[in-house]
Amino acid sequence: MIGCADLEVQVEKFNETGYLVLPGFLPASLVGRLAPEVDHWVDSGLRKLSIEASLCPQEYTPPAVVELQMEAHGELASYAPLLELLGQDCLLGPAFVFHHLHSDRRPPGDSGKSWHHDYEQRPQRDREYPMIHALHYIGGLQPAMGSLAVMPGSHQQVAEKDAWSHLGTAEQPGEVLIDEVPPGTTVLLHSALFHTRRAAPGPSGDGNPRYMIDASYCRTGTLWPPVKPYWRSVLSVGRERGLGQGCWPELFAERHFSEYVCGDRGMPA
User: Fold this and answer.
1) Measured over all CA atoms, what is the biggest interatomic distance in the chain, rounded to whole angstroms?
2) What percentage of the chain carries pLDDT values higher than 90?
3) Nearest CA to 99 among 264, 240, 245?
């Protein structure tokens, strides 16, 4: 677990760097319940159905199950230590709303994802209201699983999500590589920070699958575009389950979102 002094330094520098690494942030008891839920989400085809609904919003049927209905996933989305951290003025401040959650398991040797950012704004015009992605690495990260590379400070640019896609996943001067962290590690990214998922070295990659749950939160005060056509159903589950109830009454409030527009979708880093 990161030391308190180190955490304070990272939080204070977040506006400058745009990222924060929290090794072993999630308790083992929660991690142990999350992994089987991710397996179920992937192996049952529920993840595939959720993607298809976003690809064909005119034809979609709301999924019978959304991620927040899984017990541990709901607890993760409203995990008090995470929300308390996000509530600091250097991050989102006290008023913020849940945006979305994606859950995935990628096999060893899976492909990477080109440099991109995930800040939801159409068109991209400013960075007045922060949005933060919490990348939860349930099984940790090792070089054989692939890695995450981030470009410190790049969230201060106003650019389209794919403005760096021509770079592929290639190493860039000044990047920070995150490739060896323990299970339960959380990486917070300002959503406008450019980052890439890099494939493991070698022809196929060795090692364990790469578990990652991506949850996103936004400062209130503007209307945020949703990335799932059934976003109201997701927020409704959060309210029905009482997630964050009492301490974070706006966490699953619909009034902070605009209508879904065809083609709006976000996928894990």
Assistant:
1) 51
2) 74
3) 264
